[in-house]
Write a structure and sequence with these properties.
This protein is an alpha/beta fold. It has a single domain, classed as 3-Layer(aba) Sandwich (Rossmann fold). It contains eight helices and seven strands, in the order βαβαβαβαβαβαααβ. Bound molecules: nicotinamide-adenine-dinucleotide.
Length: about 240
């Protein structure tokens, strides 16, 4: 029987690329996204191996109820927390609402989905969680004040969860992408300029990040680590 994995932010960008990799590997994918329309289109394309769950990851009760209903006690091997938002903020223009929204999706959402999946990871005797941080967690970018702070929080909770869940044989790691060829980044019109400043001379394709997510989604001996996927632009 195929393994079951849970992917958030599944309807777009890198989450979508991760879904495609898991489906190609024969896994059953619970695809979580708040965009019901995009999720429906994805489900129609993917077929019965994809179970869509249209839910906002900031709503813990809805995530728990949705996952429990879809999985019906089935074990989960891996959880990928890709849902994230990155509206620009500075000291000059931040608001309490923006702060709460960014941290709710990027930090609380990661915790909510991990907590909701925990009984299902335990049911399989262990597993793997992969979180999405960013190079902005280390290197920061101008105009990404709160986003960078939220991704630094994701790095920290990745390490704390690695310790907390180790007795359950659940590993917890993160990826930290740099610039990726996603529609949102393309819309900035800065891709060519940005690429010129990256040692490898180009931005990443979403599948190049998905490849590392898939590797980290295999339970193994690496835990509490963050893999930087940035073409050499953010060494640490
Ligand atoms: N794009 C980049 O260059 C880049 C770089 C580093 C890190 N990241 C991080 O990688 C992850 C994926 O980025 P992307 O650019 O591929 O994303 P994207 O914007 O293309 O897709 C994000 C998806 O998450 C969903 N989503 C957002 N908020 C949600 C919520 N509250 N509940 C459920 N679903 C929600 C959206 O509907 C969307 O389908 C994010 O965590 C982002 O912060 C992106």
């Amino acid at each position: 029987m195929s393994d079951t994995v849970v992917v958030t932010g599944a309807a777009s960008g890198m989450g979508r690329a991760v879904v495609d990799r898991f489906l190609a590997a024969g896994d059953r994918v619970v695809a979580v996204d708040r965009d019901a329309g995009q999720l429906e289109a994805l489900a129609a394309e993917a077929g019965p191996a994809l179970l869509p769950l249209a839910v906002d990851v900031t709503d813990r009760a809805a995530v728990e109820e949705g996952l429990a209903g879809l999985l019906d006690g089935a074990p989960v091997r891996s959880v990928v927390n890709a849902a994230g938002i990155y509206p620009p903020t500075t000291l000059a223009d931040y608001t309490a609402e923006l702060h709460d929204r960014i941290f709710a999706v990027n930090v609380l959402g990661t915790l909510n989905v991990t907590a909701a999946a925990l009984p299902h990871l335990r049911a399989g005797g262990g597993g793997a969680v992969v979180n999405f941080a960013s190079v902005d967690a280390f290197a920061v970018s101008p105009g990404q004040l709160l986003y960078s702070a939220s991704k630094a929080a994701v790095l920290s909770l990745t390490k704390s969860l690695a310790i907390e869940l180790a007795p359950d044989r659940i590993v917890v790691n993160a990826v930290a992408p740099g610039w990726v060829d996603t529609p949102g980044n393309a819309a900035t019109g800065r891709m060519a300029d940005v690429a010129a400043g990256i040692p490898l001379g180009r931005v990443a394709q979403p599948d190049e990040v998905a490849l590392w997510v898939q590797r980290l989604a295999e339970p193994g001996y690496v835990t509490g680590e963050t893999v930087v996927i940035a073409g050499g632009s953010a060494m640490r």
